[in-house]
Every structure is written in C-alpha cells, then in structure tokens.
Request: fold
Amino acid sequence: AQSVTQPDIHITVSEGASLELRCNYSYGATPYLFWYVQSPGQGLQLLLKYFSGDTLVQGIKGFEAEFKRSQSSFNLRKPSVHWSDAAEYFCAGAGYGGSQGNLIFGKGTKLSVKP
Amino acid sequence: DSGVTQTPKHLITATGQRVTLRCSPRSGDLSVYWYQQSLDQGLQFLIQYYNGEERAKGNILERFSAQQFPDLHSELNLSSLELGDSALYFCASSAPLPKGTGELFFGEGSRLTVL
Reply:
C-alpha cells in the first residue's frame, strides 16, 4: 500500500541551527512529493514539491528538500532556523496514475524552536 | 491567503446532529478535495470532486456525503454525528493538469466539535 512516513513526531532545535525533517515514502513508482507547513490555526501551505528532474528542490522560506530514490526519502532541510519556523510540517505523496491530488500525508512533525 | 474559503470556521454541535461545511475553491480551479484532520488519524483524504462529478473517494464514512455545485463550490454533509467526528475539516482546490502542477491550495479549515 502507498504510504508516507515521518519518523519524528516532535523536534526541537535552537534558533540559528540547521534543520532536517525526515520523510520516507512507499509507492510502486516514483510519486509526486510535497512538503506542507501548518501554523497553529491555519491551513496548510506548500513549501516545495518534486515531480521529476533535479533531485534537490528549492522552496519558499529558505527550505529545500532532496529526493533520494535509493533511500525512498524526501527530507526537508533548512540551514538556519528562525523562530517563525515553529509549526507542524507534513510530507505528502501522490501517485498520478489515477487521481490528481489524492495526497497521502505523513503524520506530521512538530517543530519547536528554542531562543 | 490561499484563495480557498471555508465556512464556518468553528462549529459546535451535539451527537446525532447533522452539519454542512462549505467550501469555495480558488477562482478557476475545477477540483475540490476534502480532508479530515484529527489527532489520532492525522490528515485523511475524504473525497474529490472535479467539475461537479465525484472523481475519487478516500476514507469517507457512509454518514458523510459531499457535492460540488455548478458554480464549483462544494459542501460536505456530516450526519448522525458522533464524538469521534470532532476534527478539523479542510477543503483544498487545484488547477487541472497540465495547467496545474498538482499543488493543492488549502483553506483554513472548519473545526467541528461534537459534544
């Protein structure tokens, strides 16, 4: 079955430190992959997406993600975290053999930022 | 602002009751998706409509139904409500491929509390 796994439920980093949030996927073929961020009381905002091509994807707010087929991973990174990055982050995948946008989400990783 | 509008933002009701959640997609988007977000289940895809027709169905209970109207707004109807239906319900929309890139734009959600 198709799935997206985020192994870390909660991560705390210090402001200015680097960040890596993990995401693993299980699909029959290479899925379309996304990272979304959800601030408290808000909807989900797309940070970046991977469809094909360059495996290092740049997104908004200084985030990037790297697609690694051999590891079935699509980890999100940021070199220097800001306090405003505290939020919940969701990795999602979609197989576009059928329904567009039928995203399967990971359980999310809550990011806390220490001053 | 994603351009997706959901009403109401908050709703409190009793078990056994019926509620209707409303969603207006972004201008020009033909697809509407409904997701349920709860603490134990995470973000779950419920159903997708494309230009008025049901396109895909996920983990949607039989007590729930949805429709998309000619003006493309959508409604999610939840009936015979149970305590476990308390959740945040998101609507999302997307532009059709190939014009779109598969990205979903989410509304801010409707928080349903069943007492």
Q: What stands out?
A: Chain A touches chain B through 25 residues (CB under 8 Å).
